[in-house]
Amino acid sequence: EVNLSPEIRIGYVPQKIDLERDLPITVKEFLALRSRSAPEKALEAVDLAPTFLNKRIGELSSGELQRVLIAWAIIGHPDLLLFDEPTASVDVAGQRTVYELLHKLQEEYNLALILISHDLTVVYRYANKVLCLNRQQVCFGAPDEVLTPAELAKLYGGDRKFYHHAHP
């Protein structure tokens, strides 16, 4: 059971957003749909230059679009950000950028982040708590405590192992 205080502000970034690539809307106009105040600040928070304000949404790479969606989500100064597979449509180089950005935003804005991910490498590297579900709760705790062969077998069936390669 989850109980949220009515004062909690929540931001949400979907797995993907289906936009017409020809849609004649700029990043500034898109962000203004949420709030007319300080779109530059929102872009700065997600490490995009102010020049992106004049770009059309359809011209953005998938990684740039994801960062614009994150900017959209933080405009309301949320306490909690929810993500559904935040790097699903982002190339490998952009994935690291997105996760490093989320970590930075978490620190700078004192945010709680909840994200769905099937990438155990990402989970191990960036999460401080993991909730594993397979039609029910299978495990909950720190990644190094719960991403064990026994728990992975419960999640995926059979004998599974996860190798965490630590990078210095």
Automatic annotation (TrEMBL):
Pfam family, one: ABC_tran
InterPro entries: ABC_transporter-like_ATP-bd, Metal_Ion_Import_ABC, P-loop_NTPase
Protein name: ABC transporter ATP-binding protein
Similarity-based family: Belongs to the ABC transporter superfamily.
GO molecular function: ATP binding; ATP hydrolysis activity
Taxonomic source organism: Candidatus Ryanbacteria bacterium RIFCSPLOWO2_12_FULL_47_9c
Gene3D superfamilies, A to Z: P-loop containing nucleotide triphosphate hydrolases (3.40.50.300)
Keywords, sorted A to Z: ATP-binding, Nucleotide-binding, Transport
Annotated PANTHER family: METAL TRANSPORT SYSTEM ATP-BINDING PROTEIN TM_0124-RELATED (PTHR42734)
Domain ABC transporter: 7-88
